[in-house]
Amino acid sequence: MRFDDTVALITGGASGIGRGIAQAFAEHGARVCIADLDGPRAAEAADALRRGGAEAFAITTDVADAAAVAAAIDAVEARWGALHHLVNCAGIDRPMPLDDLDEATYDRVIAVDQKSVYLTTRRALPLLECSGGTVVNVSSVMAWYTAPGYVAYTAAKAGVIGMTRALAVELGPRGVRVNAICPGFIDTPIWQRNLDAMTPEAAAAFAERVRALHPIGRRGTPADIADATLFLCSGAARFITGTHLIVDGGVSLRLTAP
Ligand code: NAP
Hints:
The chain contains eight helices and seven strands.
């Protein structure tokens, strides 16, 4: 899969899965814009891509803010005049029991994880239509299989699946394919933050329990998700739109612990 002469915009590309996707696009020849809330880390990630020989830049962006999204897409257009691949990866989880889930937190999770897909895709559409582009939305296995404490996150990620399907139907005739990826347990700062909330002993036991649940025998890496994303953006997926790809080492297939 080569992406020479294409432009990819990765939201949440400063860290974890998004950073892995940005790196994979760069390694496969694309020019990459990293749009992330964490400006310094985004700049550092873009620097690393440039050191590797790619064309890349970063822009501080809150994907829940329409004006910031517009500025990011305008910056891509100003620099490269085109956009071929939009990857909506920025996300937050904020797990907490329903009793503690205040309205502001609920609204923020929905805005960052779900509304952002509407904001970015709508704003990028003229460029994507011009290039016959693709959109990949990073949802989660939690769109399908969930856990206590994930009311807002599950609602947002399930909403992303619905939006992916609706966008695919509407944008297919305009030459734009839209798909979703559902990662399982991927080793990133989000995963680490959840472990950090436990005692070291509990975190080690939990990590091992989760690992053992995977038929493939390990948790995922950002590179696992990046490869699947590049596939969906590539010509090899030219007849695939409106679908979701579960990339989780088989963990969501289990009904019970071993
Ligand atoms: P991560 O390492 O925390 O990276 C997420 C990046 O998005 C961070 O740089 C974060 O910046 C940024 N971000 C947060 N809110 C933003 C906003 N409003 N606008 C722009 N950027 C924002 O997380 P990750 O684990 O790689 O997760 C990436 C995506 O995969 C998320 O959508 C997540 O829900 C999904 N996912 C992850 C897993 C997993 O196991 N890791 C599983 C399923 C799905 P800050 O650090 O400043 O917040």
